[in-house]
Design brief:
The complex is a heterodimer of chains A (258) and B (527).
Chain A: E1 2-10, H1 15-28, E2 32-36, E3 47-55, E4 69-74, H2 77-82, E5 87-96, H3 109-117, E6 122-125, H4 127-133, H5 140-148, H6 156-167, H7 172-197, H8 202-209, H9 222-231, H10 233-242, H11 251-257
Parallel strand pairs in A: 1-4, 4-5, 5-6
Antiparallel strand pairs in A: 1-3, 2-3
Helix pairs in contact in A: 1-5, 1-6, 4-5, 4-7, 5-7, 6-7, 7-8, 7-9, 9-10
Chain B: E1 3-8, H1 9-19, E2 22-27, H2 34-47, E3 50-51, H3 57-69, E4 73-79, H4 80-85, H5 87-96, E5 102-108, H6 122-127, E6 132-133, H7 138-155, E7 159-164, H8 165-168, E8 170-176, H9 198-221, E9 227-228, E10 236-241, H10 244-251, E11 260-263, E12 265-266, H11 270-279, E13 282-286, H12 292-298, E14 307-309, H13 324-330, H14 358-370, E15 377-379, H15 404-415, E16 420-425, H16 426-443, E17 447-453, H17 469-478, E18 486-489, H18 496-508, E19 512-518, H19 522-526
Parallel strand pairs in B: 2-3, 2-4, 4-5, 5-7, 6-7, 10-11, 10-13, 13-14, 15-16, 16-17, 17-19, 18-19
Antiparallel strand pairs in B: 1-8, 6-12, 9-11
Helix pairs in contact in B: 1-2, 1-7, 3-5, 10-13, 14-18, 15-16
The chains are: A alpha/beta (258), B alpha/beta (527).
The structure holds thiamine diphosphate (TPP) and iron/sulfur cluster.
Chain lengths: 258, 527
């Protein structure tokens, strides 16, 4: 088993916290890992990345070769672009959909999202919305890990003791909030993954998930949604586009879409 | 008992030094070396070691040498260009040798992630006739540091540990060994071995040369210089050094199936190199940094009938950092690559000053104050404030080495430029700006030195600075700058007009002025 991840983001977005959660999950499972970080100059609001390699065998290089990464995990959608050469042919992209615009020549935001959706194995989620639903803006990194978990060699349970250890000092409430964010984000990632696996077009999935209440993603309903989204995609997307308020991810919505 | 720890390469070296019984650690911050000292600083109570940042690398080196002189073990750490600053004590300690074990940790930065150049410190070790150990992974960083301190104390030489950015800043698990107790005081007896008067130095230098066969033999026999002559055929052989060895293995799928030599303990094991070259028709040399081994091998008269490939014939890129991909490309072993950026052109996202950074307001004031002149000159230095180079500020025009802002401004004044200003951070000023300022005072050069006092060493992660606030004002006055022309500026948007006025006044004053622009770094406040 080997799992290589390129973690991407912008300096100050806290990708080292994400790396910390992944490192410890690997170690707790008795796996080996290497994690190359970027410190120094690049941290001041510049593009930053980290190469994470997890394996049950010796890991030779600290850097991932191009064309070999199993995942690009990004906290910013434009940053995905910078590392696509590393992605393996069957690799997945999991990215936050919230843009971070701190440069004058930032491209059209819609084009940035569309570029991610054009990839066959790409999942977009809203880390901010999930964290804010629990009134915890700082939990966006935990949300990112949660959304990636369905693809990783780890389960949500693997992260629980690590999150507990990280936030214990701040009290039980903070621990519980972060765990709730982790689970919601995991459901978001899992729901998205299942729809992809069931062959729904990525742009259609994105149209659906961004209209859903972020605490309501229900992976078990993915087959029902897949069916209607594949049968009448235009009708479903037209209905979704017209929605002004987020709606719950439930059976009732499946009915309305068909 | 052996323990497993998750450590950066820098931290593995730090922990090994603590476990080897060092009594003091010395350093000046510099990416990618900083984390070594920071690790020791956090553990200084537990291990009861001295750990306080030094004013610059030369000072750090000399302090470490004093610790060694007393008979205790020590480590001094810096980035590659820091060794230029410490080169004087470094080279001369090659002649005195050491007493307590002393490891010189140098972190090189090929690819210049955070540096002005990509000099390869192996040349310095060679120049100084001392051993250099170049670990390829975190475990070796730990093991080789322990070995280095033993070698140093036994053979009475400083030993260099050289890493590059990727190992310095990559984390992995390391198995540690039993800690060792610190040495007691065992001073060098009086008698001249540390007094480099010519009479003593001549004898000592002879001894240094006499020690070389022993140091060479150690490298020749080192398990870190592994020679394998068997292979699937004898056409191509590979020499790989330090971390580059990993990239070769990675490209070849784990095992190197041709004759090869891995070098991680210098001086270069010549005998092993000869054996490898004899065994094959073509030698490929893969090293992180300069073509150091390659140049030696090519010499002036290349070995007859052998094809040598490396960075000098374009087999590998001459500049930049190696990666597994670069090495695989050279060997034509590429995995399939299906994806690439579809947003074209993909905008760069360079590092930038934090929103609200005091340097921004300082530069805005400088820009406006100098806009009235046809050809203003603004030299600068190294720190967060170097980012004032980028648009929209475009405020500075030089960044060469620490302290150069002031001395280059002096030279520009001598040449006849006007107005001449320079910007320098508080830490850079303490590191090597003071001496340049002293020279400018002596000649009363017509220029404006702006010291940007944000109270910290911000660029490398907000370490403690040497002189800030009133201490800094006193320091500047103590160097002899006329007190009426040592002025304070408060870089805030609401004070913009006043700041512009202040800078203009000092530009128009015919003589040397120092303006201290003082406001705390916002990242430090957050801490
Ligand atoms: C000889 C040398 N040592 C260390 C460094 C690394 N370095 C770059 S900037 C800097 C410190 C800058 O601090 P300061 O002058 O206070 O400016 P600030 O970043 O706080 O604005 C250091 C240590 C270097 N480039 N060269
Ligand atoms: S870290 Fe401090 S000095 Fe550096 S850019 Fe940010 S605010 Fe400015």
């Amino acid at each position: 088993m080997k799992y290589d991840i390129v973690l991407a983001g912008v300096g100050g977005q806290g990708i080292l916290t994400i790396a910390y959660l992944l490192d410890n999950a690997a170690v707790n499972k008795g796996l080996r890992f290497k994690q190359a970080e970027v410190h120094g100059m690049a941290q001041r609001g510049g593009a930053v990345y980290s190469h994470m390699r997890i394996s049950d065998e010796e890991i030779i290089s600290d850097l991932i070769p191009e064309g070999r990464a199993d995942m690009i995990l990004s906290v910013e959608p434009l940053e995905v672009q910078r590392y696509l050469a590393f992605l393996a042919p069957e690799g997945v992209v999991v990215s936050n959909n919230q843009t971070f615009v701190n440069i004058p020549d930032y491209p059209d935001e819609e084009a940035v999202i569309d570029a991610v959706l054009a990839l066959p194995n790409a999942v977009l989620f809203n880390a901010r919305a999930i964290a804010m639903a629990h009134k915890a803006p700082r939990a966006q990194n935990v949300a990112t890990v949660g959304a990636a978990t369905p693809f990783l060699p780890f389960s949500v349970e693997d992260f629980e003791p690590i999150i507990r250890g990280l936030f214990e000092k701040k009290g039980e409430k903070v621990v519980e909030t972060n765990l709730a964010v982790l689970r919601d984000a995991h459901n978001a990632g899992m729901f998205y993954k299942k729809l992809l696996d069931l062959g729904v077009a990525n742009s259609t999935i994105y149209c659906l998930v961004r209209k859903l209440v972020v605490t309501s993603y229900n992976p078990e309903l993915a087959p029902a949604f897949a069916e209607v989204l594949k049968a009448t995609p235009e009708k479903a997307t037209a209905y979704l586009c017209a929605l002004e308020e987020p709606v719950s991810c439930d059976q009732e919505l499946v009915q309305k879409l068909s | 008992m052996a323990k497993r720890e998750l450590l950066l390469g820098d931290e593995a070296v730090a922990l090994a030094a603590l476990h080897s019984g060092i009594s003091g650690a010395y350093a000046y911050p510099g990416t990618p070396s900083t984390e070594l000292f920071e690790f020791i600083e956090r553990q200084q109570k537990k291990y009861s070691v001295h750990a306080k940042w030094s004013a610059n690398e030369k000072v750090a080196y000399e302090e470490a040498l004093g610790m060694s002189y007393a008979g205790k073990r020590t480590i001094v750490s810096m980035k590659h260009v820091g060794l230029n600053v410490a080169a004087d004590p470094f080279m001369n300690s090659g002649v005195t040798g050491v007493n307590g074990g002393m490891v010189v940790f140098i972190a090189d930065d090929p690819g210049m992630h955070s540096s002005q150049n990509e000099q390869d410190s192996r040349y310095y070790a060679h120049f100084n006739l001392i051993p250099c150990l170049e670990p390829a992974n975190q475990q070796e960083a730990y093991d080789m540091t322990r070995l280095g301190l033993e070698l140093s104390e036994e053979h009475k030489v400083p030993v260099m540990i050289r890493v590059t950015t990727r190992l310095a800043h990559s984390r992995a698990d390391v198995v540690t060994a039993e800690p060792k107790a610190q040495n007691g005081i065992k001073k060098v007896p009086r008698g001249g071995s540390f007094t480099l008067l010519p009479v003593n130095a001549r004898q000592l230098y002879k001894k240094v040369t006499e020690k070389q066969p022993t140091l060479k033999k150690l490298a020749e026999d080192s398990p870190y210089n592994e020679l394998v002559l068997e292979g699937k055929d004898n056409k191509v052989g590979i020499i790989s050094t330090g971390i580059a060895h990993n990239y070769v293995r990675e490209a070849l799928g784990g095992t190197i199936d041709v004759p090869h030599l891995r070098i991680s303990h210098y001086p270069v094991p010549m005998e092993k190199v000869r054996q490898l070259v004899d065994a094959v028709d073509e030698v490929r040399i893969v090293e992180e940094g300069a073509p150091y081994v390659e140049e030696m091998l090519r010499g002036i008269v290349a070995p007859a009938g052998k094809l040598i490939r490396g960075k000098l014939d374009g087999f590998l890129p001459r500049t930049g950092e190696l990666t597994p991909t670069v090495v695989a490309n050279a060997m034509e072993l590429n995995p399939e690559k299906r994806w690439g950026a579809t947003i074209d052109p993909l905008p760069k996202r360079p590092p930038a000053l934090c929103p609200g950074c005091p340097h921004i307001d300082t530069y805005k004031a400088i820009n406006e104050a100098t806009s009235a002149y046809a050809q203003p000159t603004v030299t600068s230095d190294i720190g967060c404030y170097t980012l004032g180079f980028y648009p929209p500020l475009n405020a500075i025009e030089t960044c060469v080495d620490m302290g150069a802002s002031i001395s280059m401004a002096s030279g520009a004044v001598h040449a006849g430029l006007f107005p001449v200003l320079c910007t320098i951070g508080d830490s850079t000023f303490a590191h090597s700006g003071m001496t340049g300022l002293l020279g400018a005072v002596r000649e009363n050069n017509n220029m404006v030195v702006m010291i940007l006092d944000n109270g910290t060493v911000a660029m490398t992660g907000t370490q403690e600075t040497m002189a800030t606030g009133d201490e800094l004002v006193n320091l500047v006055k103590g160097l002899g700058v006329h007190p009426e022309h040592v002025r304070l500026m408060d870089p805030l948007a609401k004070n913009h007009e006043a700041s512009v006025q202040l800078i203009r006044e000092e530009i128009e004053y015919e003589g040397l002025s120092v303006i201290i622009s003082r406001r705390a770094c916002i990242q430090m406040k957050r801490r």
